[in-house]
Write the structure tokens for this entry.
Amino acid sequence: MKIAAIIVTYNRLGLLQRCYNALLDQSDENFIIVVVNNGSTDGTKEWLDIPKDRLIAIHQNNEGGAGGFYSGMKFAYEAGYDWMWLMDDDGVPEKKQLQELIYVSEANSFLFSNALVCDIEAPLSLSFGLSENIVNVKDVEGQKWIKNLINPFNGTLIHRKVIDKIGLIKKEMYIWGDEAEYTLRAITNGINVYTVCSAIHFHPKNKGKKEKVFPYLLSYNVIIKPKSLSYAYYRNMGFINKKYHTTRSHLFVLTCYSIYFLRKMEISELCKFYKYYFRGVRNDYSS
């Protein structure tokens, strides 16, 4: 059995080093480490080019998380690895994470599983939550795994059979959505995904800014990303909604963002939202 841990990094050398050291400290040592460097300028390339235990470095221009995971998975798949274990550079796998993921996945014939992603600063809370009702570690007590609810690509274990069936990540997505699209693609092709509750991955809290559509109604929210890259989020949202969700989902999203940006008088951002959302609907990633 051949396993490749794949880390994508960009200008976070200190965090990359912390992640790398946590990998070396795993109870299961049967894996190599592939680091995809997205054109870092902070000394990451120089550090990676110094020979290190079990480490293979791939240097490329900045192609975002999507392009980074695409390159790492493609390398491991073509090199004949059976399992690919994915994570960002700011995550920290708990010592027995890989051991638990492999044991549970092989015992139950899982092809796509994920660690339970806990807040690195408050480990009893989940960094992203798995649903509205699963936001803390106590919410999964007594459960060995949870079906079709995961936080990809944070301690995500994928068998090569998944790639055989559904291909690689949609690298054009760049950032914010590639992991969700790949998970939905797996599920719609009959590959269930699982969170393995005994496998722990520590990660900073979700940094997405959740805003209320209406100031006093908690039920309606939108996710607001930094304006420099918000186009990618809008485009990926349009693609995902078109391919995997209903017309009603389109209308709901369009209504919520329209109301939010109009209320904030952010007309230029609203125009950007429409432009790139509908490019995603058309699968237009040409620019």
